Amino acid sequence: MHRRDSDISRADSPVAIAIGGHDPTSGAGVVADAAVMAALGVHPLTVVTGLTEQDSAGVAAMVAADAGFVRRVLDRIARDFDIAAAKIGMLASIEVAREVAAWIDEWRASRARETAALVLDPVVLASDGRSLLAGYERGVLARLVAQATIVTPNLNEAALLTGVDVGTAAGCGDAARALLDAGASAVLIKGGHAEGAPVDRLYTRDGERTWRWEREGETPHGTGCAVASAIAANLALGRDMEGAVDEALTFVQERIRRAMGLGRGRSIMRLR
Asked: For residue 48, what are the β-bridge partners?
């Protein structure tokens, strides 16, 4: 029997969803998430939680999407696609965050847990330091962390979320344990914002793994989004946690080396 193209796509390509903000530079947010997922062989779905007014130099303003509309979009595409992994980035308002958390609860309850990977990238600060914390409140954050297959904060976000000083390796471990105790299955603390050579640290209940990188000039815009979306894609492809993280970090490091200076501010990774 001849198969339609849509049948081939459903059979041959896992699907992941990126839930987050729209960055008009395409350096971060759901546009970059989709590019990363597609580059790794996963079909991307995207749901926009908010619009940002920004350029390559920084974020000037943010407008949240209508929470009810976001939920209707999530429900509709979940009925149409077999979603293997979800990546959550910026949650632009408390109302949107509540709807996303409720949808995540239902989506994960409807599937075997190992086939519904949730990557929570708690975007609480833009690269230029602007606060994007509006979408988080204690109850919603606790629900998302408890459902997360992996939480991927940078150093500043890990400190804000846990109240722990992450200026040392021991502090990073304490912050990660706080998130593991809150229900996350794994925690990746991204070290790109530290001075000197970046160190990324993966924590699970079975142990810890560290990656050390050489810093090659200024870190491009959107690396945190790219790492989290690459992890989501790799988990959708069936990689185990350490393999998913290792491949994601390697993928992003290769693209940092080929970053493009297109705008007047920070460079943008070449994701294709």
From this structure: 20
**What's the structural domain count of the chain?**
1
Tell me the pLDDT tens digit for each residue of 33-92: 999 999 999 999 999 999 989 886 777 888 999 999 999 999 999 999 999 999 999 998
- Complete edge-to-edge strand list for the sheet that includes strand 207-212: 58-64, 43-55, 15-22, 83-88, 117-120, 150-151, 186-189, 199-204, 207-212
Does the residue 77 lie in any domain?
yes
The predicted-structure confidence for 113-137, as pLDDT tens digits, reads as follows: 667 999 999 876 555 555 555 555 6
Domain for residue 267, yes or no? no
Of the CA atoms within 13 Å of residue 4, those in its CB half-sphere come to 3
CATH of the domain at 159: 3.40.1190.20
Long-range own/partner contacts, residues 194-198 (CB < 8 A, 24 or more apart):
194/155
In 3-state terms, what secondary structure has residue 233?
A: helix
pTM: 0.87
Q: How far apart are CA 196 and CA 191, in angstroms?
A: 10
